[in-house]
Fold this sequence. Notes:
By secondary structure, the protein is mainly alpha-helical. The protein has helices spanning about 5-15, 20, 60-85, 95-120, 125-135, 140-155, 155-175, 180-205, 210-220, 240-265, 270-280, 285-300, 305-310, 310-360; strands at about 370, 375, 385-390, 395-400, 405-410, 425-430, 440. It contains 14 helices and seven strands. Helix 7 runs parallel beside helix 14 (about 310-360), helix 8 packs antiparallel against helix 10 (about 240-265) and helix 12 packs antiparallel against helix 14 (about 310-360).
Amino acid sequence: MKGIIPRLSQSIETHLSPSQASTPTHAGPSHAVRGWGIPRVQKDAIDVTSANFGGDRRPALYGTLVTFLVLNNLAVVARLVAHYRAHYRIGGRIFPEDVFVLLSGICVNVVIGNLLASTHYGLGLHSWRINAEDPHMPRNISNIFKHVWLCMVFVGPTFTFIKLSLLFFYRRLFLVNQKWLRVAWWANMVYVILWFFGATGFYIFQCWPVQWYWTRYYQRYHVGPPIAMKGQCKATTVAHVAMPLIFSLISDVALLLLPLTAISKLQISLKKKLGLASIFSVGALACLLELARIVELEVDTDDQSDPSYGVVVFLILSVAEEVCAIICGSLPVVIPQLFREYKSSRERSSQNKDRSYSMDLGAITQSRSMVKGFEKLGEGSGDRAYESRNLAGERIDWACGSIPANTVVAETIPHTEDPGDAQIVVQRNYEVTVGGSVPQVV
């Protein structure tokens, strides 16, 4: 602790104007100087040992980022596996929406990776603590915001790929052949593409030159930058940064209403409409997270006085929205496939029970020859008692001697994966004559 106190004093001084550095405040240690991001001190002098070394948000960052990384990859893999089992394994063509989901998942992994790198350099700590512990200050803060800048650049491609995957999925699902639906689909497509160019261009060039976004901290802390340059970041104000988010929210709402409107016009029962609507309505959660990002940006994001600490919540909400959008876009594919798998498993289990049940007929001896495709039942030299069980569970005693080959009934209903496939029923009839009685159908 003693070794970093001189650097801490220097870091605090860089946050203060000359008048503030010489004039003590009297508000007590629990409040912060607005606009400078350092704790207020007692009335006598600045006590560097009481500087706020708490406020560590790195555990929350590591926990949430790793969780989102796992959820993101699980959602992408689950969607691809669901389409493989239902479509690709029988030689179907690759759906465009799956390509876009895969690309968006890769982009989210890149964003999370850069935020983990930023956390390694000190994202989640107060700026003065990072500088106090950095022998080459403000190199760590500069590295933090180099990775944050990369995250912001990937925001445009990430959300664009997610929105395009939804649009192509809706196009295939609802067969965009009605005029109003076709117009709405193309309007969303054009809007998303225009938003991509606008948002990505804004995030890249919000500072000029571009690298000034992370090298400006050398000037702020009165340290010579690695490369001599001057720049400006007039577009990094809260009002400017909020504009791409607001336009993205408009697109999110339009994408949410598109399938719900199409479902309302389907000629199906109300119960089925509600079921489909509930699946697609999970996208409302992504809209709420987008709105939460805008509110957090306007109300509680400090990217000026204490940027390494003040932007953490906003960045976590950004990743949460990206992962949530991928999950919401994958659920309409994964959930129906899970139901089909469950139904198929139940049907196979039921068929296995019926097959095991029908094997009770094996008490009748196998024929040693085939006559015109029918089995000849075993010949006996005397009366034998055979016992079998019919489909209703009744027990039948057979007094069988030499039984000629007649007719047996067997039904086979093959299992099909897809609900739209036809089911073929094969029936074979065999008549069994017991003694001299009238032939009985078994």
